[in-house]
Amino acid sequence: MTEAMDAAPACRIECGSRASRLAGALVLLFLMAGASMPFWAEPASLRALAEFFYVLALAQMWNLLAGYGGMVSIGQQAFVGLGGYTLVVLGLHAGVNPFLAVPAGGIVAGLLALPAGCVLFRLRGAYFAIGTWVMAEVFRQVIANITAVGGGSGLSVTRAVATIPTWWRQSLTFWCALLLGGGATFLVYALLRSRYGLALTAVRDSEPASASLGVSVRKVKWFVYVISAVGCGMTGALIFITKLRISPDAAFSPDWSALMFFVVVIGGIGTIEGPIVGALLYFALREMLGGFGTWYLIALGILTVAVMLWAPKGIWGSLVSRYDLRLFPVQRRLRPVDDERDATPPAVITAAPCAGTLKA
Amino acid sequence: MSEKTAGQSIEETAGGRRRAIKTLGGIALASLLPAPWVRAASTVKIGYVSPQTGPLAVFAEPDAYTLAQVKRALAGGLRIGGQNYAVEIIYKDSQSNSNRAAEVTADLILKDKVDIVVAASTPETTNPVADQCELNGVPCVTNDTPWQPHFFGRGGDPKKGFEWTYHFFWGLEDIIGVYANLWEQIPTSKTVGALWPNDSDGNAWGDGKMGFPPVLQKKGFKLVDKGRYQSPSDNFSTYLNEFKKSGVDIVTGVVPPPDFANFWSQAGQQGFRPKIVTVAKASEFPAAIEAFGDRAAGLSVEVWWSPAHPFRSSLTGQSSAQLAADYTKASGRQWTMPLAFKHALFEVAVDALKRAEGKNPAAIRNAIRQTNLPTMVGPVNFRTGPVPNISKTPLVGGQWTRKGKNLELVIVENSQAPMVPVQGKLVPIA
User: Fold this and answer.
1) C-alpha angle with apex A68: A65 to A74, nearest 5 degrees?
2) Are B232 and B256 in contact (CB under 8 A)?
3) Which end of chain B is more exposed for a tag (fewer CB within 10 A), N or C?
């Protein structure tokens, strides 16, 4: 024990809790059980879960961008579409296994995100949002005028997908979705617990302040923007393996962004659990109200507006502020050391800035 | 009640409960196991995908009527391969969106486990639905998309065709024939202005090899084609200027209703007065063109079905005129062309189910393949089409004419389908 420690009451940085460790273990268990699903579950459940996981992947990518990076994009469909068209070029024209288009779609999206970012990072706030949308429209128009990939009519990738035996197709789709959904969640979690996460949230809260602390604002933004594009691109390729038919209107549809927006905002923006809760709610609502046609869409819209007005933190955010429950903790919190067993605080905080509160 | 009997009944209930628990446990266990083979054996399920909502909703207007009518006709069930089945129709909304159409079809196939899928209304619906069925090995019948965008748009090979998916409608050759013959009826500058959007239909119609351009050239028409426009579009000034400059007398295209509304009102404002306007999609529906008021009369369009078509239903025995009248009586609406095609969709499906040797996908598929049925929209036979899996239906041309309060479609051209009687001659737009 150092002298400083004796002087100031002991406290430590906490990045986890018993609940979070339990949650981590449970999630791992679920994922392992999930991976074996193709061997015992019905194709219908596989498909439903695959859809859940790819929606989760999209939502996590948007959450990373908007909730943690502060970059509200309404044009992530650009990368979903690029992933989808990578599938067309690779699967249909080059004749490779369509599932290889999943990683390839990520690479293509990432590569195109670089020049896109060049233009977009000159804009901020609402202008950035509009800019991302315009960017997606540009991609849509360009693809709509390339006849080799079907132009405005679009085309079917059935021929490429049909080369894979049914069981393998269903299982691979499911495993890819599981990897993307689980992977996206884990990636955001790991990223935010690293030093980049600190830099990222700092940039979100104030660009000048974080720059003055030595954070390279531009680099951080680039990093997150490209990661989000790669995630959306990979997911896009997988989505169109299940849809079979692709057209510029379907691939670059603003509906994809609306979906991400809904799931994240309802679930809780800026939390890792939020998109999971939001995606569950989205599927529950669709199951219950999907038959009501236009009214279903109106209901989703009203719900989103209501949540933004009265519970801006979303469902999970509201739960957290009430019960202090964090399953994927990424915040660093100071906790008094009341327990002799783990009384070895990290040296960093021996100055104990939380002393005042502890005495109170 | 005596004590003894009371005691007995308690014992019996206890035994009953034990038995019940055992059975329940068994059911619970069985339902946990993935058991695709325990399908309900006594029901045949028909999945139906249609754009109930969204920009294509007008196509689905007759759905409620058609479904009620089909359910009534099948109330007694169907006999398939010597066994009686109740019929269940599961109706899904594509929201006029091809992504959603694919999704609900996969749902129908994997979750509802339908025995056959039917779908109609534009490539945005029929193509994704047929793709899902083809991949998952489920028999599928579609209509109301010209056959080229459906067959070639899905990468069809004329030598091989498809395994599971069948389609009946007219093709580009029919509509080109109808339009060209229609335009030759009155003297014009023979200059045609084209409004073809950059979508499945527009690209097929404007195609330099399969579409309108080569035929028009052969027939001595001059074509003014500024290229495919991006739909939706709210400004057609450049098109209007070009059309005026080149002396266009005839306007054609395959235009979504909102786009055509913009075009036609801007044409009015900018003083562009063509003699003939024959635009598919936009002017197929009385409700859509009624919005133009006085400027609606005189528009011409291809006609896939009308109350004057000399056909009868194989399902209800109604004639075309009777179907239209019954629809108006039941719904209070004027007849539209999709009405008969929705009806025919179920005619073909029910006929195939009746002839199938059993309720399995291959048997139903084989029955569809052997279809030779006179329907409400003409004879359907998938073995006589221009390419495999396709059957063609007759196409004529008509003009909207004001009769009292209503706009009525008068047949003015029947070169491609002489069995449909002509009711008048084409009149230039006033």
Assistant:
1) 30
2) yes
3) N
Residues 6 or more apart from B405 whose CB is under 8 A from it? Answer: none
The answer to the question of residue A296 being in a domain is no
Nearest-angstrom CA–CA distance, B349 and B168: 12
3-state secondary structure string across A271-303: CCHHHHHHHHHHHHHHHHHHHHCHHHHHHHHHH
Contacts of B161 (CB under 8 A, 6+ apart): B387, B388, B389
Decide if B99 and A242 are in contact by the 8 Å CB cutoff. no
> Residues A149-198: pLDDT tens digits?
998 889 999 999 999 999 999 999 999 999 999 999 999 999 988 888 88
- Per-residue pLDDT tens over the stretch A280-335: 999 999 888 877 777 888 888 999 999 999 999 999 988 888 887 777 777 776 66
- Measured between CA atoms, how close is A44 to chain B, in angstroms? 5
- CB burial readout A4-29, b (16+ within 10 A) else e: ebeebbbbbeeeebeebeebeeebee
Class of domain B173-303+395-413: alpha beta
Q: Which phi and psi angles does B165 have, rounded to 5°?
A: -120, 130
Which domain, by its residues, includes A111? 34-260
Mutation target to probe the B interface, by most B beta carbons within 10 A, among A40, A172, A245 is A245
Rounded to an integer, what distance in angstroms lies between the CA atom of residue B161 and that of residue A312? 54
Could you tell me which of B204, B208, B228 has the C-alpha nearest to residue B217?
B208
CATH 3.40.50.2300 given to domain B17-170+307-391:
yes
What distances in angstroms separate CA B212 from CA A55, B17, B121, one per listed residue? Answer: 42, 75, 22
